[in-house]
UniProtKB/TrEMBL annotation:
This is Facilitator of salicylate uptake. It comes from hydrothermal vent metagenome. Its main location: membrane. Keywords: Cell outer membrane, Membrane, Signal, Transmembrane, Transmembrane beta strand. Pfam families: Toluene_X. GO terms for molecular function: long-chain fatty acid transporting porin activity.
Length: 437
């Protein structure tokens, strides 16, 4: 059995490193990590259960014992872009499923039950869409097509590795810290083909990645057998530039003055995209030994990373009659906003070795009405979801979990009068396998 788990662990790691783009739901971040976190709708900061706590609150490894866990999530998103109000088309896109894997390990150091270490690799964020070719809104220039052809594609993935050390100060209070070693990959196309003006937009068609780093801090305080508080802080993750070798014209975008444009002259271009900081507070209440009720509040500071994103490289500025100068940077105004997330969950132990759970998660949309047109390839507008889950012990060593999440469709319409709409919803199914030793 140990050899079987070793082989499954290797398979999980390979899947992590080759997975399709994750498609997440609090902005571009997963609402819950693993089958337990998904089943609780992310309300787990004060209620650790397995090694997914390495991400949600690293202090939780002082409470879960020596164990390792693998999780596989299969997510089926429903994303839609709708240009029909301006005479164009609408589509739900072409990609039906994405996989989100993760693996974690934690254990006690020494015999005094106060020092613990852990390590995990998790897909914690991502985004993906594949729309078109389709007829969309016109570019608004004199003589331009009313409904030119749009092609929209995005793939964003974020993996986090979490070497962690945790200290149990006493039986009630634990603290922990993690060094975050990250990998991020981005591919983006948001282009418009007009019969008079040719191809305009962003055509960064290759998937380029970069490494980065940050840290996470966590704390867990048990007031008594009934009430536990948890806190988690993850720093802004400092990511390296993603470098793209682009042909001339691969970036052809309107200038901020509305009367000119910028064009890439070709060569190496770099996108600087850090991962946002965030913090969470949670409470867990056990009114009886078999019943657990949890609530979390999380704040994700998307604006510090995804409000404006710089593309660095050589550009020529084009006026109505030709080139009017050069520049070495263009700023994309995605306009993502900071969001608040509220999550609640309940778990009931139905037998000595079995638990059932349910949860609800509500967040703001990262994209407002004023920024819909800048995010038609990145429809990060999910708001509300509910979940169901269960865990069963298989003997003294093994444990298996299952979770189902339903994210209700949410639509945001552009406030610029175009009527353009973007929509996000979907469902996911997560299976987890753990071993306690």
């Amino acid at each position: 059995m140990k050899n079987l788990f070793k082989l499954l662990s290797i398979a999980c790691l390979v899947t992590v490193m080759s997975s399709a783009p994750a498609f997440a739901v609090n902005g571009n971040q997963v609402r819950g990590v693993g089958a337990y976190g998904e089943g609780m709708s992310g309300a787990v900061t004060a209620a650790p259960f397995d090694t997914s706590t390495l991400v949600t609150n690293p202090a939780g490894i002082t409470k879960i014992g020596n164990r390792t866990d693998m999780n596989f999530s299969l997510f089926s998103p429903k994303r839609k872009v709708d240009f029909s109000a301006s005479g164009g088309e609408e589509t739900y896109g072409n990609t039906d499923f994405y996989m989100l894997p993760g693996i974690g390990l934690s254990g006690q150091v020494g015999d005094d039950d106060t020092l613990f270490v852990g390590m995990g690799i998790f897909v914690t964020a991502g985004m993906g869409a594949d729309f078109g070719p389709m007829k969309g809104i016109g570019i608004g220039a004199p003589g331009a097509d009313r409904n030119p052809t749009w092609r929209l594609f995005s793939k964003m993935q974020f993996w986090k590795m979490t070497p962690t050390i945790a200290k149990k100060i006493n039986d009630q209070f634990s603290i922990a810290g993690s060094i975050n070693i990250n990998y991020q990959e981005v591919q983006l196309q948001q282009s418009v083909v007009d019969s008079k003006y040719g191809t305009n937009g962003i055509m960064a068609n290759s998937a380029e990645g970069t490494m980065g780093y940050g840290f996470t801090l966590g704390a867990l305080y048990e007031v008594n057998d009934m009430i536990t508080f948890g806190a988690n802080y993850s720093s802004r993750q400092n990511m390296g530039d993603m470098k793209y070798n682009l042909l001339a014209g691969s970036l052809a975008l309107p200038n901020k003055d509305g009367t000119s444009a910028v064009n890439a002259v070709g060569g190496e271009y770099a996108i600087d995209l850090d991962f946002p900081s965030q913090w969470a507070l949670g409470v867990a209440v056990k009114p009886m030994p078999t019943l657990l009720i949890t609530a979390d509040y999380k704040r994700i500071n998307f604006s510090e990373s995804y409000d404006q994103v710089d593309i660095k490289g050589d550009f020529v500025n084009m006026g109505p009659s030709g080139p009017v100068g050069t520049s070495n940077k263009y700023t994309l105004d995605f306009g993502w906003e900071d969001i608040s997330v509220m999550a609640i969950a309940v778990q009931f132990q139905v037998a000595e070795a079995a638990w059932i759970r349910a949860g609800y998660n509500q967040s703001d949309s990262t994209v407002g009405e004023e920024d819909v047109s800048n995010n038609v390839a990145l429809p990060a507008v999910g708001k509300t979801s509910w979940s169901l889950g269960a865990t069963i012990n298989l003997g003294d060593m093994w444990q298996t979990s299952l979770a189902y999440v339903n994210m209700q469709e949410n639509t945001v319409e552009a406030s610029d009068g175009s009527g353009t709409q973007i929509t996000l919803g979907g469902t996911s199914l997560t299976w987890g396998l753990g071993a306690r030793f």
